[in-house]
TrEMBL record:
Keywords carried by this UniProt record: Signal
Signal peptide boundaries: 1-22
Full protein name: Uncharacterized protein
Skewed-composition ranges (Pro residues): 43-57
PROSITE patterns to which the protein is assigned, alphabetical: PROKAR_LIPOPROTEIN
Location of the region described as Disordered in the Swiss-Prot/TrEMBL record: 19-59
Entry superkingdom: Bacteria
Length: 215
């Protein structure tokens, strides 16, 4: 017979065996550094940002450049532009100007309502700016500086033929207003005209800008 003491020892051994559980297997983990490296290596390369193409020049400016490139005086008469013309109905077209270049704008029922020209070179165009200033101030009834253009830039203007605006029509309604313009660094005398009145001609003069040819 098994003694009571032996039974007690066997029971204790069985309880100890049941209480032991297998240790869990370790779970593989990644360090923060390895996670970052994995994400970075798997991400697609950033796409290149497209370079915006330059905005095309307005139709009138393109036309001015085309006419200027064909002109005899292009080396001494850089192209000027009118980014604002004060009219929504006008349509630009090429205009004939001997030895130079020109663009005119037509309005419904009014051909050559206004325009700009780089006149052909003449002998007096080579005179220094001081003499040109005195000549235009003497020739025309009105005179103004054009500070938005390369210095010295100025204009003499009035009614075509260098006439003064009539007392009974000081705004020149229905008349052809004309300005002679000199621009610093250029040899030619530019012509700016308007059949829409004195105020419109002055608006065009205020909005004259240099037009940079594309290289």
């Amino acid at each position: 017979m098994i003694s009571r003491t032996a039974l007690t020892l066997l029971a204790a051994a069985g309880l100890a065996a049941c209480s032991r559980q297998p240790a869990p297997e370790p779970v593989a983990t990644s360090s923060p550094e390895s996670i970052g490296e994995t994400a970075e290596s798997s991400a697609p390369p950033p796409s290149a940002t497209p370079t915006a193409a330059p905005a095309p020049a307005p139709a009138a400016s393109q036309l001015i450049l085309r006419e200027w490139r064909k002109a005899e005086n292009r080396h001494g008469c850089a192209p000027l532009a009118l980014p604002r013309i004060g009219s929504r109905r006008a349509t630009p077209r090429r205009a004939a100007f001997s030895g130079g270049w020109a663009v005119a704008w037509d309005e419904p029922g009014l051909r050559s309502a206004f325009g700009i020209a780089g006149a052909g070179l003449i002998g007096m165009d080579d005179a220094p700016p001081g003499e040109q200033r005195a000549r235009l101030a003497r020739q025309w009834p009105l005179f103004r500086e054009l500070e938005q253009l390369p210095s010295p830039s100025f204009a003499g203007y009035g009614i075509e033929g260098a006439g003064a605006y009539p007392d009974d029509n000081p705004e020149g309604k229905g008349l052809n207003s004309l300005a002679y313009v000199r621009v610093g660094g250029q040899t030619c005398t530019y012509n700016i005209w308007s059949r829409l009145g004195r105020a419109h001609l002055e608006y065009l003069l205020e909005n004259l800008t240099m037009l940079e040819p594309a290289r």
